[in-house]
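FOLDING PROBLEM:
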Amino acid sequence: MGKRRIVYRLIGMFIAFALLITVPMTFTILTQVNKIISEEEELKSPESEEYSKIHKEFTSRLVEQVIPYVFYILIMALMLSMLFARKMLVSLKELQRGSKAIMDGDLDIKLQAAGDDELGAVIGAFNEMASSLRQKTIDLQKKDIYVNAMLDPLWVVDEANRVTDINPAFTSLFGYSREEIMGASIFDFFDEHNAAIVRGQLKDRRDRGLSSIYEVNIISRDGSSIPVLISGSPIMTAGEITGKIGIFKDFREQRQLRNELQRSKEYVETVMDSIEDQLLVIDKDFRIVTANKIAFTNSRGPVLGEFCYAAVHDSIRPCWAEGHECPAQTVFLTGANFRTIHQHIGPDGGKRFHEIVASPIKDQSGNVQQVIELLRDVTDRVLHEADIYLKNTELVTLNSISRLLSSSLRADEIFSTVLDRMIELIKMDGGGLFFIDEKKKDMVCHYHKGISDEYVRMIGRIRLGEDIPGKVALTGQIITTSDISTDRRIERSVMKYSGMKGYCCIPVKGKERIIGVFCLFSFKPHTFTVEEESILVSIGEMTGIALENIKLYEKMRELYEHQRQRREQEQAQLLSLTTKLGSATDLRYILGRVMEQVREICSADYSWMLVRGGSDDFLLKASSNPSEDIGRVIFTRGISSIEGYALEKRAPVVITDIRNETKFFIPPEVSGVSYHSALAVPMLIGEKSVGVITLYYLGLREFRDEELHFLRIIANMLAVSLERYDYYIASINEKSLSETILQSVADGIVTVDTGGRILAVNKSFEQMTGISPEAGVGMPLCDTLRYHDENTDLCLILGESLQAALAGNKNNRDAVMMTPRASKISVRISSSPVLGPDNTVTGVATLMRDISREKEIDAMKTEIIRSVSHGFRTPLSAIVGMTEMILEGDIDETKEKQYLSVILSEGMRLSDMVSDLLSIARIESGMERIRPEQFDLKDFLDELLFSLNTAIEKKQASVRYDIGGVSVLYADPGKLKQVMLNIIDNSLTFSDPGCHIDIRVKKSDTDIEIAIQDTGWGIPEEEMPHLKERFFRGRHGEKVKGSGLGLFLCSEILRLHGGGMDIRSVPGQGTGITIHLPHREMP
């Protein structure tokens, strides 16, 4: 554009100079030519050929002379133009220099303008262009950096759809290098399907210069197909499209997510379509975004994109414009769920009802974006509910009237109120109630409303069969008319011309007859529905029953007064019986008095009470005759009697005439007296039969139901009294037995409540702790045992035991207690929870057993076991040692016999010890049995002493016996010999050499006594109580060999015989043992 302006400027200067020279010259030439022509015309020469020739050639000669002149003028103008354009050439050179610099890449060049003319402006524009080019170059460099730094692939495409550039991300994703892809057609990277998509986008968008976004698959360098999202934009140059740039988004994850979303969408659509109700999703414009299958089926037009009120309700206006609540609008405003029922007109023109549940769909910020509406057709339900409501209204009215009729027995109050309710229910203007007078065969109006008294007096009495009320009273059928004045069915009626229109007459029916009629009227026409007629008939029937109830009530009041007086008498009689039974100390005497009173109450001549005995016999328990033999058998088992039949039926049995009765056995006590009638009443407690009360009458007697009922009350009351008396006696016996058992237990027993306070103690506990029931009950158990400082640990252990038991756990604990006598004993505390009926812990039962002796015995047993082990080891060592010496043969014959004698002696001692242990084991296990037989006592003693001869001689003792006239003895000789050997051996063992042993036998009335007295060392008094205990050896046991089992074994053998033994001893004077055996004869 600048070059054109410069050329135009040069041409302009040239033309200007040419015009400045040529125009004046031209005017001068023209003036001369015109002068010549004028002069030539003035000559008036005749036309000649030469004249014509000269005249014709004038113009051409003139032109030939002017052209050189003009050429020189133009040359002069050109030279003048170039002279004046020298300044413009300087500017052009400056522009040439700038152009060369730009072509060399020097964008920082700045040209100097020669002036302010157009070329100066061009130079200024060139400078601005160079600066702008430099800035854009910098921007392009930055953009190139940005493009290369892009994470998304990018390519540039020319108009021929060939790649002209890519960024590194393209190579990273697809694997193509820049050299491989430059100049390649973009369609080489797509399959046919995706190439078609790209062509369509290019054709549709690029030709119009529009951007586009579309999804395709690109074939990567390794041949795999990669899904991408292409964002394409045209490259515009001078308003023309010169290429296109495409940015690729790796769409693999998005496609997978989209596929999952698509599956989820399909699943949701499947779920939506499976819902039988209409389901809609509505946007903020109240247009339907999506819907389920049933919504499309129910709609008569399009659904998606339509307004919800148009698609669902066929309405042209939204719900709120019609004055209804719009669920979607409410949810959009509140953000909460909303439920309502909408009414609209269905395709058939009828009313339809939809229950709509609307719920919000919110974004992450909690803003409601869409609304889900669930529409359920509830037309049938709504109509059903409306029908139910109508029926319920009728029922409420009937119930109100029924409650009114049943709440009062005042006729004036009932019937006037019922008449008012009927008028209100049917919306009448008035009415009346007529009652039938059976004697006069007419009806009288007793209650009225909406009409004057004068009119009532005029029509107040109507004969049966006349007019509408009379016909209804006679037929019992309701009569209704919408307009009595025009009803042709009604010809003669005083109401026809009274101004009444709507009219009905309802019969008031009792149980068996019609009592009266209700009349209702309206001054406007009224059509009575079937439901109204049904309600009116029901009210009439209820009113009739209420009227009869009122009359019945009057009769009942009279009967009630009579029954009240009778009940007072019965209550007085029952009170008297109850008083007697409640004060019973001598049951036999009280029951006799009660039977006498029953006889008097029932006006009987004789009464008795029979109860079943242990063998199901009937025993006489009480009688109105005090001289009867109480307790004797009246009927044995299997005999058919009135009493047995009454118990079998569990109901009173009435015998009108005993004398003609052949079914039942009549006892002589009854048949001997001329009794005529009898009544047997069973005595029952639930399902249990206790006995029978029988009343006998000399005359003929019939019984009313109230009398039978009263007698049953008396019989059951007596049954309860007998049962309670038996329970009372049993409970006393049980309590006495329990108390006896508790007090007989050798261990101390104490019971406490949940607070640890004493409830009860037994005698053993009192003896052990010194705490009596009077002093201990109500006191904390642990506090009562703190009478000595050394019982502190005992209280702690006892407290732990009680706490464990209160937690429901049985437990045993050992402790040491200081008794009130200042002696220490070892006790075992056993606590157990006491459970109530609901299985909750109500207290604790604690048993305290003195285990001091057990601990001593355990210690003694340990010592005895050690001693027995030592006793076994000593003889065994001797036996083994002497046996080895004999086997080695290093001793002479005399020593050998001596050693063998010792081995025999020690072996016998071991045998005796084992025999004693085995005998004790058999006795304690219950396997030991005695085999008694009769034997000669003298022979027995001789044999016994012979077996002890060696020991007697060794001890230089003298043993004598005196059988005292007892020649034979009945016992187990082997066991008795074992006893005697143990006793005499002890006498020899615990005596000095030269001792004396006397055996004396004596017979008494019940047993035989064998007394053995020695002159040995004697036994200390403190050891006497322990002599019969196992393993007890005493102080002298340390000096001699033994196991401590002898006397215990003797005691057990004598116990098996049914006898025993007594031990007496004085230290230093000897010991005496007396054996007691039952005196028995051989069977």
Remarks:
- The first helix runs from residue 2 to 42.
- The chain is about 50% helix and 20% strand.
